[in-house]
């Protein structure tokens, strides 16, 4: 294998690693985690862009314009039950010999449960201005398959950790209109291990691993209108163009492809989606408020992962995500001056396409059914809780990948499988006014 082909091989490995890192199903579409507010979790995030307060700052920077001094700390536990099963996966070796992929056909709970933290603080400056700071984890999950899994050429371990730091400014323009703007610094760290096929089913697999990270930047804007019983919100969060620096290790390749064993570095770039939200809250009376929110998510920005290798060459891994529209409705009911109950239903369609879904992204359409309660423990402290059941639709896995592409050793794995599961999210947060 010449230097150019080694470069291409390493580039494909880095690409696959980045794909794995952003491919864990969550309680929102694909690799996005919307668990940024315990109060919002209780109503399926149905009124966030129109609500006020520091815990709505992720959805609308204008939310802090008239909320006073406030601190929010939240924690969200995500329990996922998932199954991924083989449905006729094959591998085609050089010369055209096609055989079934051997190994573990049933994979129970490859998607690990986890915890998502968040923090936010805001303070007014004078009578009309406010500033805020928030730290969120919008992408944060781990997926693991056993070494003998049928999906091993697609994924073994896939880890993603992220931190988003937002600095926000807001202004009360009039008695009824608020505007806000923010900048985001987003850190992403990814890790992958996977198997690589040697040129005969009688030979042990090779292995690849990658770790990469990097900081990149985006922005967000929003507006809110408060007109008596009605509250309206509009917001937009930009895409972020990520470029991760990574270290690649490829081992265990034998015979003619042994020259592909490599340890080195590379970079990979991909985009996270933009978000546009429209929300309304209507106070039916002093106790009951109805909420609705629609989000248009620009997943088509995640069209490909583009790789540059440290020596020569590179590659592009097509993703072809589609833009989606999500929505939720819910309510807040003030039982008394200390207790508020919430509920909501949300729908999140998957941005993945049926004929391009891999074991790394066993994503599916989902319904969210939520309930929650807020208790004002003291005059300055409120405890928010939320519980969400997520019903995932069953989905098919169908994709193909060629290892050592462009060489005489090209080996194509054709993945066919099914995925099903459900999730439960438990959220708790504390808000302090000071």
Automatic annotation (TrEMBL):
Pfam families referenced in this protein's UniProt entry, alphabetically: Toluene_X
Q: Hey, what's the signal peptide range on this chain? A: 1-28
Q: Which UniProt keywords apply?
A: Cell outer membrane, Membrane, Signal, Transmembrane, Transmembrane beta strand
Species classification? Bacteria, Pseudomonadati, Pseudomonadota, Alphaproteobacteria, Caulobacterales
Protein name, entry field: Outer membrane protein transport protein
Tell me which species this is from.
Answer: Brevundimonas goettingensis
Q: Name a single GO cellular component.
A: cell outer membrane
**Coiled-coil stretches, from where to where?**
none
Cellular compartments annotated: Cell outer membrane
């Amino acid at each position: 294998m010449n230097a150019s082909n080694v470069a291409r091989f390493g580039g494909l490995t880095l690409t696959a690693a980045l794909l794995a890192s952003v491919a864990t199903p969550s309680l929102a579409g694909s690799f996005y985690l919307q668990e940024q507010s315990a109060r919002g979790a209780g109503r399926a995030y149905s009124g966030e862009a129109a609500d006020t307060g520091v815990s709505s700052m992720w959805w609308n920077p204008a939310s802090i314009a008239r909320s006073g001094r406030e601190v929010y700390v939240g924690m969200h536990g995500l329990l996922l039950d998932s199954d991924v099963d083989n449905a006729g996966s094959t591998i085609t070796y050089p010369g055209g010999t096609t055989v079934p992929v051997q190994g573990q056909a049933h994979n129970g709970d490859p998607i690990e449960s986890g915890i998502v933290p968040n923090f936010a603080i805001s303070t007014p400056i004078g009578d009309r201005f406010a500033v805020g700071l928030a730290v969120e984890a919008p992408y944060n999950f781990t997926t693991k398959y056993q070494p003998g899994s049928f999906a091993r050429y697609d994924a073994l371990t896939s880890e993603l950790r992220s931190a988003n730091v937002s600095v926000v400014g807001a202004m009360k323009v009039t008695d009824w209109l608020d505007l806000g703007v923010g900048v985001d610094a987003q850190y992403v760290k990814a890790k992958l291990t996977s198997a690589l096929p040697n040129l005969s089913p009688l030979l042990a697999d090779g292995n690849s691993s990658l770790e990469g990270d990097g900081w990149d930047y985006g922005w967000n804007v929003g507006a809110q209108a408060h007109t008596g019983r009605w509250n309206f919100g509009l917001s937009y969060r930009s895409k972020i163009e990520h470029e991760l620096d990574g270290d690649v290790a490829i081992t265990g390749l034998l015979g003619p492809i042994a020259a592909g064993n490599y340890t080195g570095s590379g970079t990979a770039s991909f985009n996270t989606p933009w978000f546009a939200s429209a929300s309304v809250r209507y106070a039916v009376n002093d106790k009951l408020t109805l909420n609705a929110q629609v989000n248009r998510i620009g997943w088509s920005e995640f069209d490909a992962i583009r790789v540059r290798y440290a020596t020569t060459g590179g590659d592009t891994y097509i993703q072809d995500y589609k833009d989606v529209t999500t929505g939720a409705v819910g309510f807040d009911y003030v039982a008394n001056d200390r207790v508020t109950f919430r509920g909501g239903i949300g729908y999140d369609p998957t941005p993945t396409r049926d004929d391009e879904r891999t074991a790394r992204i066993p994503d599916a359409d989902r319904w969210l059914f939520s309930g929650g309660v807020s208790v004002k423990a003291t005059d300055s402290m409120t405890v928010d809780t939320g519980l969400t059941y997520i019903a995932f639709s069953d989905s098919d896995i169908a994709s193909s990948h060629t290892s050592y592409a462009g060489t005489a050793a090209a080996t194509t794995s054709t993945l066919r499988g099914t995925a099903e599961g459900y999730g439960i999210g438990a959220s708790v947060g504390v808000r302090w006014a000071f």
